[in-house]
């Protein structure tokens, strides 16, 4: 890997942007594409597939054989609420390849004894997310049922374009949440991105089953997400 490519990748990593390195196997020439840049139209399908899977791939385009290597920011899950479901997510998410943080200002719930081995931040979400902003490679789950805790991070997640935004609660609870967000000026289209009721519909009943349903829905959203790349290159 040449110095210019390495610098581009390091810059993308620091900014939590995706990058793709395309190598022509016949000539050895490489081209680095950064998230937000236009894609050559003939490469779009192959690169899009690699970006969604997160895995390198070989592609044959006409008479050219290309090796496509993708460099994605580590996906992460930010959980709002130190509840029973969060305890299970804290165990399962790292197994599935996600970094996970739990934020809850309620110190009676946010205790090290309940969340050993999981990053736990006993502060208000608005304070945490100012210092550690959300991004397109973050999933946010709001699990407290408390508007004073959940609503701000939900708005922040929608503004940041998080690939997944989910909120716990019944349809009645979510209807009230929708009205609060609407009155706060959040567009209806953005509110419609919130997954509620949260998690895949697998008939989950226990906290462990609900956590599994949420994690499965997050994985599906990651693999099927809208890619943040520009239009076709001329």
From TrEMBL:
Gene3D superfamilies in the record: NAD(P)-binding Rossmann-like Domain (3.40.50.720)
Occurrences of domain XdhC Rossmann (ranges): 77-218
Membrane-spanning parts: none
Pfam families in UniProt: XdhC_C (PF13478)
Protein name: Carbon monoxide dehydrogenase F protein
Organism of provenance: Sinorhizobium sojae CCBAU 05684
């Amino acid at each position: 890997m040449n110095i210019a490519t390495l610098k581009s990748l390091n810059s993308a990593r620091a900014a939590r942007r995706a990058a793709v390195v395309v190598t022509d196997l016949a000539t050895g020439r490489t081209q680095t594409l950064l998230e937000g840049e236009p894609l050559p139209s003939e490469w779009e399908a192959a690169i899009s597939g690699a970006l969604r899977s997160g895995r390198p791939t070989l592609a044959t385009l006409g008479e050219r054989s290309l090796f496509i290597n993708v460099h994605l920011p580590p996906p992460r899950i930010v959980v709002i609420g130190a509840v029973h479901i969060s305890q299970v997510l804290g165990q399962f998410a790292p197994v599935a390849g996600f970094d996970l943080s739990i934020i809850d200002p309620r110190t009676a719930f946010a205790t090290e004894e309940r969340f050993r081995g999981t990053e736990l931040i006993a502060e208000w979400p608005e304070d945490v997310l100012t210092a550690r902003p959300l991004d397109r490679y973050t999933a946010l789950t709001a699990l407290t049922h408390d508007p004073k805790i959940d609503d701000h991070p939900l708005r922040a997640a929608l503004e940041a374009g998080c690939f997944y935004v989910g909120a716990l609660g019944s349809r009645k609870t979510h209807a009230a949440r929708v009205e609060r967000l609407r009155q706060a000026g959040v567009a209806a289209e953005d509110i419609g991105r919130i997954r509620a009721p949260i998690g895949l519909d697998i008939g989950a009943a226990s906290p462990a089953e609900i956590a599994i349903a949420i994690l499965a829905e997050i994985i599906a959203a990651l693999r099927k997400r809208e890619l943040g790349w520009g239009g076709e290159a001329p």
